[in-house]
Amino acid sequence: xxxxxxxxxxxxxQLDAKRERxxxxxxxxxxxxxxxxxxxxxxxxxxxxxxxxxxxxxxxYVMFEVNPDDPSDKALVRMxxxxxxxxxxxxLMPALLDAIRxxxxxxxxxxxxxxxxxxxxxxxxxxxxxRPLEDDWEADARALxxxxxxxxxxxxxxxxIVLTRDHVWERLEVDGRTLHYQQxxxxxxxxxxxxxxxxxxWARDVTTGSQHSDLVELYCGNGNFTIALAExxxxxLATEISRTSVASAKVNLEANQVTNAVVARMSAEDFSAAxxxxxxxxxxxxxxxxxxxxxxxxxxxxRAGLDADSCAQLSEYQRIVYISCNPDTLAxxxxxxxxxxxxxxxxxxxxxxxxxxxxxxxxxxxx
Length: 367
Prior knowledge:
Elements: H1 11-25, E1 35-37, E2 47-55, E3 58-67, E4 70-78, H2 87-100, H3 104-107, E5 110-117, E6 123-129, H4 135-148, E7 151-156, E8 159-162, E9 167-174, E10 177-184, H5 193-206, E11 210-218, H6 224-229, E12 233-240, H7 243-255, E13 261-265, H8 268-275, H9 282-287, E14 294-299, H10 308-314, E15 319-324, H11 327-337, E16 341-349, E17 359-366
Parallel strand pairs: 1-16, 6-7, 11-12, 11-14, 12-13, 14-15
Antiparallel strand pairs: 2-3, 2-5, 3-4, 5-6, 7-8, 9-10, 15-17, 16-17
């Protein structure tokens, strides 16, 4: 990957370039004015990972800069600090290495460190090794937890030692409410917490006036949008294929006292088949689909976007909320979706400053 070069003085310039690129790319769909949500210009990412490099007595973090013309060509870049990462992660980076550099038990065969932090500073540190972890490692790791004020997980092949817990609790302020999210180690979470809050607020705004109908959500993850949108609808049915994310979503529904939403473990493809009556079974029966009146569908797919059959399924809803981390596949999908729907809201969420990546939100309404 390309390592972002963070220059806060140039933030507005890079954001303007993204805005112009999206406006040109999507002009053929005749969208309304692009709504732009800026990120903090630095220290915006709440999770990141580094390889650990051993060089004599020294120990330091590295990342790999990939040559875009030759993916096999990777340059090693030393990372003593990382302006992309949260201030809490930056403070922990040297403190962690200083604590383990002269400790052979903690240091030996350590090859990767992963940080997961929250806006409030709660942090989970995963230490990943090329060796089995034994009792002496656990004793030293517990002392390190106390010294640094973090939670530690140790991982090696076929081994995972959770010392305190395997998650953090993020608290996001959205439209005057505090939403609570369990975020589990080594599972997907939105990396830019402040932009995530903006996305949730935007999604709530574009789905107002739906209290007498229902929402279906595909790729719901840990319930990120589910929780924020539930009060806009009579009922919500959310689906997700990852076991870890489904379990976390159910915890998050309870933590936020959301009682009108259900999370089902099912792929988007299988769920679409169930809606058409082409798939049955216990999970489908438990969803009791006949009891819903879906007016709105929210989809937040992977970078590959949606296939033609999934787009055809979305076209059956009055309103589509499409969250995309890849404008190229979003544009491809809109070629099909705009045959039946109009783009009535269009947003850029600068989730990944100083990179070419863009997060977009589109609201489509059936003509």
